[in-house]
């Protein structure tokens, strides 16, 4: 029986398509948040969900320590600069990442991945997604769970001497604490956040701006009801500012008092870090490379928020 010409063309097309190499999704790197571990049930579940969205994707979860408990502890105690350097060596040694990758940082893992991009970026990051991260630091230490003794000890130590030498070298949260009441001390004592934000003119590094602006997309996710990150706008590079509140003293004298209002937020596009383009944000924004996203809910409530972003900005996305 003679096969119709249209059938021959159709069958030939199937053979041709099946013979083409399958496109492998771009690899993905994850960095967990405070109180978590690279191999926790939640991180493993998230990696599995990503693999459902992008079959065949390679996912690597960053670790500081391979032991579960020690890795969780490293989220509270350690020197962030040394941890970022350790992770840069770790990522450079993974063959699957040599051609570059997308990255997702959860909470503090977001600014740590940004530090990697600015300082190393070899292999390079294509898209960076940060969920509830503290890009402009925090002005209060997050409250711990009732039975989380490790967190409570770290929080108490950080609040007592946040800008002391020991805290700035050993307490992770202290290293991105940015006190709007005490900016002078912040600039002189802090060695991590001031660095990756290029806030100190004498040590400003042009490589940071070059590397960050090389991203395809920087996706900044803010949680609308976030009470863990103070201020929550830090996730969008916003920071609290001190305002003058005029009122009468007990003696009836009109006087100004410095106060911090939760509504007194300096947004990204009014920040010196943006206006003077210290780390490449303005250049990135000029080509629509900064994406502002809101997730309804409290800190790290990802349900209903993560999937669309993973589809669009991870794996075989943009």
From TrEMBL:
E.C. designation(s): 3.1.2.22
Lyase keyword on record: no
Principal EC category: hydrolase
GO MF term (any one): palmitoyl-(protein) hydrolase activity
Signal peptide: 1-19
SUPFAM superfamilies: alpha/beta-Hydrolases
Alphabetized UniProt keyword annotations: Disulfide bond, Glycoprotein, Hydrolase, Signal
Gene3D superfamilies: alpha/beta hydrolase
Top-level taxon of the source organism: Eukaryota
Family listed: Belongs to the palmitoyl-protein thioesterase family.
Name this protein carries in UniProt: Palmitoyl-protein thioesterase 1
């Amino acid at each position: 029986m003679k096969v119709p010409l249209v059938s021959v063309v159709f069958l030939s097309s199937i053979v041709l398509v099946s013979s083409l190499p399958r496109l492998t999704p771009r690899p993905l790197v994850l960095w967990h948040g405070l109180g978590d571990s690279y191999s926790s049930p939640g991180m493993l579940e998230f990696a599995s969900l990503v693999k459902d969205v992008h079959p065949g994707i390679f996912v690597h979860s960053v670790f500081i320590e391979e032991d579960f408990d020690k890795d969780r502890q490293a989220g509270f105690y350690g020197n962030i600069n040394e941890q970022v350097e350790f992770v840069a060596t770790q990522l450079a040694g993974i063959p699957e990442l040599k051609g570059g990758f997308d990255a997702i940082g959860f909470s503090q893992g977001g600014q740590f991945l940004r530090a990697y991009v600015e300082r190393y970026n070899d292999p390079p990051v294509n898209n960076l997604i940060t969920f509830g991260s503290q890009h402009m630091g925090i002005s209060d230490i997050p409250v711990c769970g009732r039975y989380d003794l490790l967190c409570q000890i770290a929080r108490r130590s950080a609040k007592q001497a946040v800008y002391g030498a020991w805290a700035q070298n050993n307490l992770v949260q202290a290293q991105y604490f940015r006190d709007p009441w005490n900016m002078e001390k912040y600039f002189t004592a802090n060695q991590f956040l001031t660095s990756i934000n290029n806030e100190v003119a004498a040590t400003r590094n042009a490589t940071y701006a070059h590397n960050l602006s090389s991203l395809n997309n920087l996706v900044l996710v803010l949680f609308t009801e976030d009470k863990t990150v103070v201020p929550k706008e830090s996730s969008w590079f916003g920071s609290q500012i001190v305002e003058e509140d005029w009122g009468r003293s007990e003696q009836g004298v009109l006087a100004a008092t410095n106060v911090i209002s939760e509504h007194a937020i300096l947004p990204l596009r009014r920040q010196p870090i943006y206006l003077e383009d210290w780390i490449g944000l303005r250049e990135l924004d000029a080509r629509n490379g900064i994406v502002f996203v809101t997730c309804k809910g409290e800190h790290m409530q990802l349900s209903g928020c993560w999937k669309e972003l993973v589809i669009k900005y991870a794996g075989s996305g943009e």
